[in-house]
Structures are given as structure tokens and as C-alpha cells.
Amino acid sequence: MNYLQKIIIDFELHSVEGIKECFENGVNPNEIVKDKPLIYELINMYSRGPLFKECIKVFVDYGLVFDDKVLLSVLLDNATMLDTQLTADKKEITICEIGCGGGDNLAAIAKALSKDISLKFIGIDIKQECIDFAKQDPNNSYIVEWITSDYRNVSFTKKPDIIFSSLFCHHFTEDLLKEQLKWMKENSTIGFFINDLHRHPFAYYSIKLITSIFSNSYLVKNDAPLSVARGFKKIEWKNILFAAGINNYTIQWKWAFRHLILYMHERK
Question: Is it the case that residue 45 has pLDDT exceeding 90?
């Protein structure tokens, strides 16, 4: 049996046991295929299933040599390892949020991240009232630059390391979102991440019921289900990422019908 051919099929199936079998039968996890390490055959595949990180872990268990430890942390979905690598590689990290609102997300990240590195933040929002609120909020005591602008019109003198958005993407069409992803890729040095809604009937009718019971606000009752209805399914995210020419990403489903999309630049 040609186990090198078999392992490519196992990559497509995300067959953890199949990949192990191939390594047990002589396939080298550091094999060069099409002028690239074998692992890139798995990384660059269109599909990102729940077993993707387990497939990556099999490579590691069988002796993978992978110099880009930051990217490996993301592929393994290992937040502790990622924090360690970012701390080791850089003494200063700049994180930018587009559609930052009042800055709550930036404040949470500032509180959670390692204190061994210098952190700088950039918050971008098109609404002046959001930026005014963020500037006055005592929780936003970290080092931050607030920018009132459409994110597309922002030109950085020094690109941020990481760009992210949270509950922002569902306000855009697929074509606009494709351009947004390209912008995030082009303007970050490490990568970007996105937290946004998963469109699903259960999520839609649940939030409709919950807001009808617990909220007296017409705006909340109308906008919450509408936001879910505008969210994206996983296959739609894959299509958008593919159309934007983006690889090296993972899509993970999170509690409360959220998708977490992570992208890392390939590092030389």
C-alpha cells in the first residue's frame, strides 16, 4: 500500500487513526511534498472539521519539526501555548479592534493577557458617540488609540500585530465581508480573529422567545433575532475565506451559537 497517498485521503477525512497508521507504516511527518512540508497538505485543505486539531496533534506526537510555534499554537487551538509564544517572540504587541463600540472587548483582553509584554490597543469605530463613550469609560485605562472612522479609510503608520472584530461581520454582505477579510489580512502582521453569530433556527427562535420574556425594549426584541438571521453558517464562512484567498485559518463553533475564525500569516 502507498501510505503517502493514503495519508492525503486521511487528511480529507480528518481520520486521526488513519494518519497514525500511515506514520506507523513509515510516512515521515516531516516529509516534503510538492516542495512543502507534508503538514501543509492538511493545513491548506478546504475543510476544517472538529477533528482538525487532533490531526495536527498526531503530527506533533510523531515528531513534527515546525519552526513557527505561534502558527502551531493556533492550529492546535492551544491558547496557553499561544500566549507563551507571543510573550517569547515579542516584547510589545499591538491589538486592533474594528467596530470596537465602547471598548469592552479591548478592556477584557487587556485584563486577560500576560503582563510580561507591553500591550498597545487601537479601537476603530465609525460612530463618534461610541468613541466618546470609550474615552470616558474608566475601565479603558490601558494604552489605547481611539479612531473615529470607517475602518477601510484607516492607514496605519505601523501595522498592528493582531486585528479582530466581535459581532461585527453579520452587518455586512458576503462581498463586503470578503473585502473586510482581505483588509484584516493585509493590515496585520501576525493575523486576525473574528467572533460572530452562527445563523441557526434554534438560536433564532430561542433569542426571540428570551427577549420577548425578559426585555421591554422594542429595539432589543427586533434587533437580536435579526442579528442571528444575518449571521453566517460554517460553509458560508469557508466560501468567503476561499473567495478572499485566505488559508491557514480555523473555524471553531463556540457556546451560544458563535463562530470563532482564526487566521495566521505564514511566517518565514
Answer: no
Determine the 3-state secondary structure of 222 from DSSP: helix
Q: Which single residue is written with the C-alpha cell 453569530?
A: 197
Domain identity same for 97 and 191: yes
Q: Give the residue ranges of DSSP H helices in 34-127.
A: 39-43, 52-61, 69-75, 79-89, 104-112
Q: How far is CA 148 from the centre of its chain?
A: 24
pLDDT tens digits for range 151-165: 999 999 999 999 999
pTM of the model: 0.75
CA-wise closest residue to 168 among 111, 200, 130, 139: 130
Separation of alpha carbons 166 and 46, rounded Å: 24
Taking the C-alpha atoms of residue 189 and residue 264, their distance in angstroms, rounded to an integer, is: 9
Task: Judge whether 135 lies within some domain.
Answer: yes
Q: In degrees rounded to 5, what are phi and psi of residue 123?
A: -115, 125
Rounded distance between C-alpha atoms, residue 109 and residue 119, angstroms: 10
C-beta separation of 215 from 221 below 8 A: yes
Q: What is the DSSP letter of 155?
A: -
If you average pLDDT over residues 194-199, what whole number do you get?
A: 94
Place of cell 513534527: 64
Q: Which of 66, 88, 103 is the last residue of a domain?
A: 66
